[in-house]
Design brief:
Length: about 375
């Protein structure tokens, strides 16, 4: 049975292709990419997408029979520029003895495509390490796996950004505790900084907060100042306190302030944070203390001081989780997220005009 929230009012055009060149300004378009019918296991979560230099879109997700299944892989799929269908997902990273998870795909300015992912060595994610592969042919083939971090508990979730000095900043996090239903209070967000000239990675200072925080998303405001929004730590019980954790850096991301509660609720769920080419900031998050619904976009016009505009991308009795987004070369924003108890990968395309002026009908209400 189809989720009733996938039925939109007549003003919505549901994508059956992601070749979205006909998208009008001020529109939101949504596509169900893959669901349980795709034979890579029911579990498909989280997802990440990048735009390649040749105009293709490339999507990855962690798939298998469940979050803690042992026979899992990171799967990749391509939507060729101008094509109407995504290619069948193929495994691009797996381990013969361990579970893998949380794939992140990103094309760097030099054309090298990076795939970062997690390998879990024990029963819980706090035993994980980070590995990576690279592709020099637009994600057609991938290198062997290399280890990025051997520190137990290090994981990856967000796409890198390019800093003003040319370095890459990869958001990572260190998760503690061995309870699958709780993030330890000493869990921290941090970053790996890559020097393209030296081809070296160095770890930055951590973001610490009273209840812990993980999965940072980061933007650079100017040459020295950065802001990160992070998923809170703790458990999944309904709360009256539990907000996105915000931190600042004033030395190019090398050290960070203590994480403080931002004015946005967080049901222990991932967030996305982008600096758009217009200079506006875009935050995508679950606007709830206890549920991963609705999935909401907010805009700041003044460098993170105020957030006057919010619009729901999806809402209803479902879970819309783990948003991952980027702004494409044509200025449109591409967002992937999962739903239906981590079994469906969704793709949304919209622009700033839709967030500011789009009607509630366009948001699928």
């Amino acid at each position: 049975m189809k989720d009733p929230t996938i039925m939109f009012l007549s003003s919505i055009v549901v994508l059956i292709t992601a070749a979205c060149h006909c998208l009008e300004a001020g529109e939101l378009r949504l596509e169900r990419v893959f669901g349980p019918e795709v034979p890579t296991g029911r579990y498909k979560h989280p997802a990440c997408m990048t735009e390649l230099a040749n105009g293709d879109l490339y999507l990855v997700y962690y798939g298998g029979q469940g979050e803690y299944a042992t026979d899992t892989a990171v799967f990749g799929s391509r939507l060729r520029k101008g094509a109407a269908r995504w290619t069948a997902p193929q495994p691009i990273a797996r381990d013969p003895f361990r579970s893998v998870g949380n794939g992140v795909v990103w094309e760097a300015p030099d054309g090298l495509v990076w795939l970062f992912y997690v390998v879990r060595y024990g029963e819980t994610w706090s035993t994980s390490r980070i590995q990576f592969k690279v592709s020099r042919d637009s994600a057609q083939t991938w290198s062997d796996a290399s280890v990025l971090s051997l520190d137990e508990g290090d994981m990856v979730r967000g796409r890198p950004i390019v800093l003003h000095d040319g370095a890459y900043l990869l958001p990572i996090y260190h998760e503690t505790g061995h309870d699958p239903e709780r993030v330890g209070p000493d869990s921290t967000s941090l970053f790996l900084r890559f020097d393209p000239a030296r081809r070296t990675w160095t770890k930055t200072g951590a973001i610490r907060s009273p209840r812990g925080n993980i999965q940072p998303a980061v933007v650079q405001l100017n040459d020295h100042d950065l802001v990160a929004y992070c998923r809170r730590g703790g458990d999944y019980d309904p709360r009256t306190v539990g907000h996105i954790v915000r931190a600042e850096s004033h030395d190019g991301g090398r050290t960070w302030s203590e994480g403080k509660d931002a004015p946005f609720p967080n049901p222990n769920a991932a967030v996305e944070f982008l600096k758009l080419r217009s200079g506006r900031l875009l935050l995508i998050f679950n606007d709830s203390m206890s549920r991963r619904t609705p999935l909401t976009a907010a805009l700041s016009f003044d460098q993170d001081r105020t957030w006057p505009v919010r619009r729901n991308i999806r809402e209803g009795d479902n879970d819309f989780a783990y948003p991952s987004a980027f702004q494409a070369h044509d200025g449109r924003i591409h967002l992937v997220f999962t739903s239906d108890r981590r079994s469906v990968v969704n793709h949304a395309i919209f622009d700033e005009d839709w967030v500011i002026h789009g009607s509630s009908n366009s948001a699928g209400r």
